[in-house]
Write a structure and sequence with these properties.
- Belongs to the RlmJ family.
- One of its GO terms (biological process) is rRNA base methylation.
- Keywords: Methyltransferase, RNA-binding, rRNA processing, S-adenosyl-L-methionine, Transferase.
- InterPro entries: RlmJ, SAM-dependent_MTases_sf.
- Helices cover 37% and strands 20% of the residues.
- It has 280 residues and is an alpha/beta fold.
- The chain has an 8-stranded mixed sheet, with helices on both faces. A two-stranded antiparallel ribbon has the order 2-3.
- The longest helix has 17 residues.
- It starts with 12 loop residues before the first helix and ends with a strand.
- The model has no long low-confidence stretch (mean pLDDT 96).
- The structure holds S-adenosylmethionine (SAM).
- S-adenosylmethionine binds next to strand 4 and helix 7.
């Protein structure tokens, strides 16, 4: 089943959180000259048109990136992410949203490499088109979970792995843990960033419990909720689980999250938290 299309959701509050964390990790990895790999298991189309029927139908970006990108008091932690958003909107109007591969492509250096995987028959050619002139990138059509075995460890022994499945299949909640566990066996020093939606809190609790059971240490959790938990339909919050986070990430996210929460949810509903699932 491949009915999920990210174009309906691009630039929403969950993307803002995910791509802020992604950008900060990339910037930390760039502090050393040595190259690194950016592996994106569920890469999407790369670029999303915000004036498209899909984006306009949900209007999710209006409560997401549209609230953030032109704020005058933009915190320094958002600078790398927003520079990637500006790079695809040079006219100054918000017409496009860069997905995780484009954000990485914008921030990575010539010596770094990108491995991007997308399964959807419509999104894969769009993604391939975005990177056809970028010698740093390899774009694969396939199952992203398999790449956690096939592409790890990277030759450079440094890297960020972004795992961002649609969770349209209930098995995704187990597959992410299995995939991380497989990847970690091969590449225990890598940074792993897993995105999750909070639709039913119990599902996330079970996923986190399974992650704890793997024995992996240094697991941080960052969450931004736009509403309180609910048993009704719909996503109330989203989060990023980061394994081996760069040392600055906790402080950076603790500092920027209150601003993001206030800007994305001026009514003050929900919560924004940084915590450790498993410490050192
Ligand atoms: N990471 C992207 C970003 O931040 O811009 C968004 C990705 S979107 C949430 C999830 C993507 O995973 C969709 O484009 C979907 O087609 C794709 N997908 C679904 N199952 C997959 C699988 N098993 N392997 C790779 N991609 C898959």
């Amino acid at each position: 089943m491949l009915s999920y299309r990210h174009s309906f959701h691009a630039g929403n509050h969950a993307d803002v959180l995910k791509h802020t964390v992604q950008s900060l990790i990339i910037e930390s990895l760039k502090e050393k000259e040595k190259p690194f790999l950016y592996l994106d298991t569920h890469a999407g189309a790369g670029r999303y048109q915000l004036a498209s029927p899909q984006a306009e139908r949900t209007g999710e970006y209006l409560d997401g990136i549209a609230r953030v990108w032109q704020q005058e008091d933009l915190p320094a932690e958002l600078a790398p992410y927003i520079s990637a958003v500006r790079a695809v909107n040079r006219s100054g109007q918000l017409r496009y949203y860069p997905g995780s591969p484009l954000i990485a492509g914008h921030l990575l250096r010539p010596q770094d490499t990108l491995q991007l995987t997308e399964l959807h028959p419509s999104d894969y050619p769009l993604l391939r088109g975005e990177f056809q002139k970028d010698a740093r990138a390899t774009v694969t059509r396939g199952d992203g979970f398999i790449q956690l075995k096939a592409k790890l460890p990277p030759v450079s022994r440094r890297g960020l792995v972004l795992i961002d499945p649609p969770y349209e299949m209930k098995t995704d909640y187990q597959d992410v843990v299995k995939g991380i566990s497989e990847g970690y066996k091969r590449f225990a020093t890598g940074v792993y960033a897993l995105w999750y939606p909070v639709v039913l809190r119990q599902q996330i609790k079970r996923m986190i419990h399974a992650l704890e059971e793997t024995g992996i240490r240094r697991i941080m959790q960052i969450e931004l909720a736009v509403r309180p938990d609910s048993d009704q339909r719909g996503m109330t919050a989203s989060g990023m689980i980061v394994i081996n986070p760069p040392w600055k990430l906790e402080q950076q996210m603790t500092s920027v999250l209150p601003w993001l929460h206030k800007t994305l949810v001026p009514e003050g509903y929900g919560h924004a938290t940084v915590s450790w699932i498993v410490p050192e």
